[in-house]
Design goal:
There is one protein chain. The protein is of the alpha/beta class and 325 residues long. It folds into 2 domains: 1-207, P-loop containing nucleotide triphosphate hydrolases (Rossmann fold, 3-Layer(aba) Sandwich); 222-324, Magnesium chelatase subunit I, C-Terminal domain (Helicase, Ruva Protein, domain 3, Orthogonal Bundle). Helix content is 46%, strand content 17%. The protein contains 15 helices and 11 strands. It has a 5-stranded parallel sheet. It has a two-stranded antiparallel sheet with strand order 3-4. A two-stranded antiparallel ribbon has the order 6-7. β3 and β4 form a beta hairpin. It is globular and about 70 Å long. It starts with a helix and ends with a helix. This is ATPase associated with various cellular activities AAA_3. GO terms for molecular function: ATP binding; ATP hydrolysis activity. It comes from Caldicellulosiruptor acetigenus 6A. Pfam families: AAA_3 (PF07726), AAA_lid_2 (PF17863). Residues 40-184 form the AAA+ ATPase domain.
Length: 325
């Protein structure tokens, strides 16, 4: 890996983060983690109350990265063909009838799957192939999606009536699940001043698709020392309740995170190191993204639910038990 590539990447990442922060007040941690996922080629599940800026964040990122943006509003009557597209009958020049594939909104670079848990499992599953393989299959014909390709999905944590919780297999396809908090007092004032009393600034393009893919390749080359990799591995394995020495997992979890969680943890830590201005992965890089990688991949058992614990609190307990060596 060339040092010049690392320095260039650090400068670009800093500029992208700074440009988005001009139009998104606060939410620094959310912005950082969404960008980490994008430069790692991963998908993100954003959970937060209405009005906290989830949609505006995704649109702003698409403008700064100069990517084709598409929004899908998920509803119970949405069908898979509404997402991926369908074959339609069309006439050619000589008047004969042919089937022509009409592309759906999934054919974009950044797809905002708004309120994804409002759609039925059948429709939710239409995203799985696109999220994992970057392809779409319709009537036996496979179509490749343009890269870079990311799904940024949102869901409301409060309104659960008439919703369909995402299955574990689909949640595992999200590199991060990020909680989007309500802004604080000072941030509320800044938001009002920016959006009500003055004209909203427009984010400016910083890079484009080819550069994003190139940075993704550089991210994968960031070195990680053996002790740090072993720490990340122990952390993921500590969520498995079937392992005898995992007291916390055995007490509070039905199931834990698997190999994909470790892959995402290491990859995300590499990108975080570059955002922090370091050419190698540190223990703090693993810790800073651990909850976003692990929380949606573990299942609470009855004892944890009866004690009022959340996935985040259980992961905190596991993090406190893990030692760096």
């Amino acid at each position: 890996m060339v040092l010049q590539d690392i320095e260039y990447t650090m400068q670009v990442l800093s500029k992208v983060e700074s440009e988005i922060s001009k139009v998104i007040i606060g939410q620094k941690d959310v912005i950082r983690k969404v960008l980490i996922a994008i430069f790692c080629g991963g998908n993100v599940l954003l959970e937060g109350l209405p009005g906290v800026g989830k949609t505006h964040l995704v649109k702003s990122i698409a403008k700064v990265l100069d990517l084709k943006f598409s929004r899908i509003q998920f509803t119970p009557d949405l069908m898979p063909s509404d997402i991926v597209g369908t074959n339609i009958i069309s006439k050619d020049k000589d008047g004969s009838l042919n089937f022509t594939f009409q592309k759906g909104p999934i054919f974009a670079n950044i797809v905002l799957a708004d309120e994804i848990n409002r759609a039925t499992p059948k429709t939710q599953s239409a995203l799985l192939e696109a999220m994992q393989e970057k392809t779409v299959t319709v009537m036996g014909q496979t179509y490749k999606l343009d890269e870079p390709f990311f799904v940024l999905a949102t869901q409301n944590p409060l309104e659960q009536e008439g919703t369909y919780p995402l299955p574990e297999a689909q949640q595992d396809r999200f590199l991060f699940k990020i909680d989007v908090p309500l802004p604080g007092f000072d941030e509320m004032i800044r938001i009002v001043n920016l959006t009500v009393e003055s004209q909203m600034p427009e984010p400016q393009k910083v890079i484009e698709g080819k550069e994003i893919l190139n940075i993704g390749r550089i991210v994968r080359q960031v070195p990680i020392a053996k002790p740090v990799l072993e720490y990340a591995t122990r952390l993921v394995l500590s969520t498995q309740p079937h392992i005898e020495e995992n007291e916390i997992a055995r007490k509070y979890l039905k199931f834990g995170a698997g190999p994909r969680a470790l892959q995402h943890l290491v990859l995300g830590a590499k990108a975080n190191a570059l955002f922090e201005g370091r050419p190698n992965v540190a223990f703090d890089d693993i810790k800073s993204i651990a909850k976003s990688v692990l929380c949606h991949r573990i299942g609470l058992n009855f004892e944890a639910i009866s004690e009022g614990l959340t996935q985040s609190e259980v992961v905190d307990m596991i993090l406190q038990r893990q030692k760096e060596w």
